[in-house]
Amino acid sequence: MSTGNKTTITKDIDNRSLTVTRAFDAAVDKVWRAWTEKEWLDQWWAPRPYKAETKTLEFREGGMWLYAMVGPDGSKSWCRVDFISIITPDSYAADTSFCDEDGNLTNQIPVMHWNCNFSGEGEGTTVTVIVSFDNPGDLEKIVEMGFGEGFTAAHGNLDEVLAK
After folding, report:
1. Which residues contact 48 (CB under 8 A, 6 or more apart)?
2. From CA 44, how far away is CA 53, in angstroms rounded?
3. pLDDT in tens, 31-73
4. What percent of the chain has pLDDT over 70?
5. Strand partners, 35
6. SS3 for 57?
């Protein structure tokens, strides 16, 4: 199902950041849950043909989400999200890193600093994510890896999940 909503991504080299904006056809409480609860995240977070598989999720300040991106061949790339601040249901900030299956950082991929904001109006919600990096080279590496295409595809998955 396509809602006609589009993901926009703006690159700001000077501020070492990407700003991702996307509207969803669902109330803010439902979209918030989809971004913060394991049962929802595992349904949409990974771009197809990959899937997300949560090992642990403690959505609280100081908590962590440890998950794998599982490829069609069964291979797993592990990621951890460390939650820094949470203001339910308005925003949360987190650091995202690649790691091993136990959550130990691998430093293969640059750390990304996420600031996720949710604003609702009626039955619609706009999510704005500012992803910042420690240096411009880290930003470019993530862009080259297909961040924009992958995140846009995952947003399409989320449209389908929210429509259920």
Report:
1. 153, 157
2. 10
3. 999 999 999 999 999 999 999 999 999 999 999 999 999 999 9
4. 98
5. none
6. strand
